[in-house]
Amino acid sequence: MKICFVPIDNRPVCYNLAKDITAIDESIELFIPPREFLGDLTKNAQVNEILDWLEKLPACDAMVLSLDTIAYGGLIPSRRGVNDKGVQENFSDIKNRIERLKPLIKGKKVYAFSSIMRISNNNYNEEEKEYWKDYGKKIFEYSFSGGKKNDGIPEEILEDYLETRRRNFEINKLYLEWQKEGLFDTLIFSKDDCATKGFNVDEALELERLGGKTKTGADEIPLTLLARAIEKDIKVFVEYLEPAYKDCVSNYEDVSIEKSVLGQLELGGFSVVEHKDDADLVLVVNNFVKKQGELVMGWDTVGKYRDNFTMPQKPYAVADVRFANGADNDFVKHLFTQFDLKNFYGYSGWNTSANTLGSMLAGVKVKWGARKYNDLAFKKLQMVRFLDDWAYQANVRGVIDSPCDIKDLMKPYESKLSNLLEYRPDKQITYSYPWKRKFEIEVSL
After folding, report:
1. CA–CA separation, 57 and 197 (whole Å)
2. Mean of pLDDT over the chain
3. Choosing a second label site near 52 at 20 to 30 A (CA), which of 6, 127, 152, 414?
4. Going along 96-197, which residue ranges are E strands?
């Protein structure tokens, strides 16, 4: 199977993860743009080069497209509103650019997504417009109040922000016209870092009213669409470790954890069954009680799973969502005491609940449907996820002040995981900070 995959940017979880997942099945040929073409924290993607690359591609069985990459140069540039020369772009500028994409996807099987612009509830402008450092939280409150509460936001800043929102919303409505023309097999509008109310929630409702499909999440959606492109049905039973709290809402999301799980399964092309005996695979969800914890914020949350949980005696995969931005150490310890490598289909504890679910399910789908299975590639993928989500995010990240050499700090985790997964990398594992911040690392095996 030949798959074209255009990521949202060059982060390891957006770029490397797609390659690591598809490597599990050697019959999949993944076409992905050169990494240097993709955007990062400070620069936009080289859109013309990506379009040139798309024009030269051989015929593919499926195309998975992050439309923000083509329209704006990436997810972060979609919020900032300027091109790679720092010039503000309007609706016509974006429309003219994406028109070049239309003939390249016409008649193809295209799985695409576009983001609904997020509204961060903080005064942190690393991924936003410059004025977010002073007015970000106030703009969030203005949005949450439906435009009724303006606590001192200057008129020119508010107008600039709202104009960027209007521009992106009109582009999303344009994609709906493309959908009516039959250009997409699947089109998803992602609700990125979404609260329960706000302009982004209103836009999602309007897109749905116009016939669009929305989904909470963002970075993982290309991977969920990758799973959908692999047309292999898997019957899944979902086992929540805190079943009485599956209606609680995750941090940075606007739906319950149950709806997030079911939404990712549906988008990924899985079937959900009500009885474990009827399932091909059990999805174990380490969910939270009342409020999701977050390690970097020091927010804890309770759980009682260790008293009554045993690992399924059939194929299983694990979504570790008790905490945002990292694994649950107590649960991972419990998991390792019952670990069954033969039936294991994947683990993830990356970032938001939707990020965890979508990325992990893509690996499940590829392994399950593999025509030419590569066991070493699967073990490599799991080694990377545990080293990143558990070893680094839940442990090492908390004891360093800034990006630094973490090789010695990671060695005990490497040793434990090598034994657990029966996997020995050929070369020394290295760690780097691709965006020069603590938030994400790149694990290279």
Report:
1. 42
2. 95
3. 127
4. 110-116, 186-191
